[in-house]
Amino acid sequence: MASETTKVLYGLYNDEEDLKKAVKAANSDHLDIMDVYTPFPVHGLDPILGLKESRLHQLGFTYGAIGASFAFGLMSWVFTRDWPIVFGGKPYWSVPAFIPITFELTVLFAAWGMTLTFYTICGLWPGVKAKSLDNRITDNKFCLAYDVTEADDSTVEKYRSFFSKTGADEVNVKTI
Amino acid sequence: MSQPIAPVRHVLIEGNKTYHNITEDLCRPTETTPSREWIVAFALSAAFLGLYVFAICWTVWKGIGEWGANRTINWAWDITNFVWWIGIGHAGTLISAILLLFRQRWRTGVNRAAEAMTIFAVICAGQFPIFHMGRVWLAFFIFPFPNTRGPLWTNFNSPLLWDVFAISTYFSVSLLFWYTGLVPDLATVRDRATGFRRKMYELFSFGWTGSAKHWQRWESLSLILAGISTPLVLSVHTIVSFDFATSVVPGWHTTIFPPYFVAGAIFSGFAMVQTLMLITRKVLKLEEYITINHIESMNKVIVLTGTIVGVAYLTELFVAWYSGYVYEQFAFYNRVFGVYWWSYFGMMFCNVVSPQLFWSRKIRRSIWWTFFLSIVVNIGMWFERFVIIATTLARDFLPSSWSYYRPTWVEISIFTGTIGLFFVLYLIFTRVAPVVAIAEVKSILKVAGSQYVEKARKEYSENPPTEESLTQKATQH
Lengths: 176, 477
Description:
The complex is a heterodimer.
Chain A: E1 7-13, H1 16-28, E2 35-37, H2 45-49, H3 56-82, H4 95-122, E3 142-147, H5 153-166, E4 170-175
Antiparallel strand pairs in A: 1-3, 1-4, 2-3
Helix pairs in contact in A: 3-4
Chain B: H1 19-31, H2 36-62, H3 77-101, H4 107-132, H5 159-192, H6 195-204, H7 212-245, H8 257-283, H9 292-323, H10 326-337, H11 341-353, H12 361-364, H13 367-394, H14 409-432, H15 438-448, H16 450-462, H17 467-476
Helix pairs in contact in B: 1-15, 2-14, 3-4, 3-7, 3-8, 3-13, 4-5, 4-14, 5-6, 5-7, 7-8, 8-9, 8-13, 9-10, 9-11, 10-11, 11-13
């Protein structure tokens, strides 16, 4: 999918409230939105777009658990099996002393794991060329896009009348 | 306008800005040629960085004997400076993580620069323990890995090793948090740039488009990173304090150290944020984004944490007396009236007395007072670490080994040199990335922009809400 080009018909709105109204209108007209692009996270957009809550935090927990087990397991193995040494008359398996490093590695694994997952699932990496529809989307325009690669003229016309009805400031076509 | 604004809200973005104005104002510093002030500041910082490089080469070539640290006072300026820099770093994480969890909107004006400050301060801090090792080419021994030295592992029971893990985790997690926040703003700069600059920003913005799903994940990631950075930042200075507290040295072996170190870290960090922000907002003309309200909020944190630190100092003295333990009592008598009495009184004045001035609203909202006191607090917090480390060691268990410590030119050069390193990094940062988080400021515009807040205040005064209208509103939401 990624290498294929997509022909996109998009409208730019001047305010996030106009965009939200447009998304609601698209929902009631049963139009299939390709994506919505905004300069900042617009709250209240996810439910009306039908986006499910991100599951990143569940993964974060998993990565953290891996980090904790790795740290605690390694320290336990080193000090009881591989090379047991008595430090200050303490038991070989001195659990309280392992807590700080276990905690740090939990955080380290969770943070790196989640961040790398975030970039991977979003397809964001150095060298990725942004499939940007308009330079002003990262500035002050709120964009609603329809995929018109395989759309017939009547569908395109329907989208255009939708944009004029919902007060889009500008409507353009771009192949990305 | 969808969100209701309480008329008591502070204005956090002045000058009736639109979204486009925000983009223009915050991208401008990366797009114009550097000002004369910037060039002068950069040249000066680079000169100090050069001094740092020279002093470090000297240390590595000649050995640690070139420092004033001796067998009695074996932790001296190096560890003082290490703790000082690490402490400064803490404010960045506090602003970006803890204030995000508390939904404090004023964080958006200062979080980016404060996080950058964290990263640069940790880089400076890291220099000291590394070069204090002496044979710096063996520094990698601090990391546990299967090796050819026999199965020789690090001592996982040692607080010094906990520190290695804490600080390296802190550095890398702060870097991820900061950079992930920066990606959408780099995309903004990218979309305005042309030619070679555009290519560079394309590379560094990772192909960001602003898609709704990406924003959702981005917010989710930021929130969880904030959630795990909060205990992380508390753990870092707790573990730094363990370096002292788990020893058996009187004056160090106390359970008050972790909370007192953390409060001190936030205190000194906010002072450094103030110093930097006051200069940055003036030089980059960002007064409308980093307002007096932001400065006042940070001063409130300073007066709170300064007071906590003051209470900790007095508690230490009280507990030393109350313990009835003569060695502990001597340690504190020595701290206050011993050979380094001047550093104790310097610390008390700078950290406990001076921030109390911030109880006055007028002083809290005065730029000059804030700038002056932020420098005083930074000096005071440096003294605190010096008092804890040098005065305690100078009078140890054996009177025959008592000694006095004076820094040599090498240590002074390394310390001032790290300040140069810090400012070189910070000044480069102000040129290549937006110092205020563009997307986050835009997201609070409609609740904290001057035109919106003033409109809400006007509506409120012209048409004060009745009980009936409030009930109606409550049922609506």
